[in-house]
Amino acid sequence: MNNTTRSRSAADIADWLPEDEDFWQSTGKNVAYRNLWLSVPALLCGFAVWGMWGIITVQMLNLGFPFTQAELFTLTAIAGISGATMRIPASFLIRLAGGRNTIFLTTAMLLAPALGTGMALQHKDWPLWAFQLMALWSGVGGGNFASSMSNISTFFPKRLQGTALGLNAGLGNFGVTTMQIVIPLVMTVGLFGSYGGEPMTLMKDSGWIFGKIVAGTPTWIQNAGFAWVLSLVPLSALCWWGMNNLKTVSGDTGSPLVAFAKITYLYTLAFVPAIFMLYLYLPKPTGLGLISMWVAIPLDISTSWRLC
To answer: What is the pLDDT of residues 50-61, one digit of tens each?
Structure first.
């Protein structure tokens, strides 16, 4: 049996026969598991960046940011709805753009909300919409679940797909727990020295799973965003150099730049209805407060589905 036939670039595999036992044992198994073990940490970081606003909003209250509790909790709502919406275009991305192209770009895209959130959190005087924009962008991490799962399923024979998807989803979802541990920890240290900005003083007692953080503690809340850069940069590089596009699944992706344009276009289409529905749902001054969540979410999803 011939090894995988490469096309266009070393990352593109033209022939993929996971149900053929000889192929699987000689070539397919190593390639499939390499893609799986790169997919897991990428998905983990996606969940962490998507879910980080649940921790950040509480700490913004404890640090005295000049927003009401209701205003701050719009950040978690925005991230949640955005992430749910992004799963619609993400479910098409593997066939349109290729697995390696998609996982690389959507992982690298998380650098924008990670860096942007870190910069915004250094400025208490910035308007609420700046933080809401970062929460919206964090939704890319929620969308990554759909593309990650559809990508991994194509690498494995049917008898192993359940195991592979279970590992990918189960360990990837550990990003929520990782975020709950990492963010309170990195906020107590000047992780990046003078490059990471000045600390703020905690005005109310806070805590994390290992204990209490007392009022008066210097707090680098910006590290809640910046910390993920340390994993996202090497992960993006590893996904680019270590993952593959299966041409049996994604036959006409075009060049990587064309594939990236497809991904960007579909995500842009999905952001438009998400922003509009959030504007109708969220209370003033952020939005109009005209419809309930139970109306906004179905409308958002149905509109995004039609556009994509």
So the answer is: 999 999 999 999
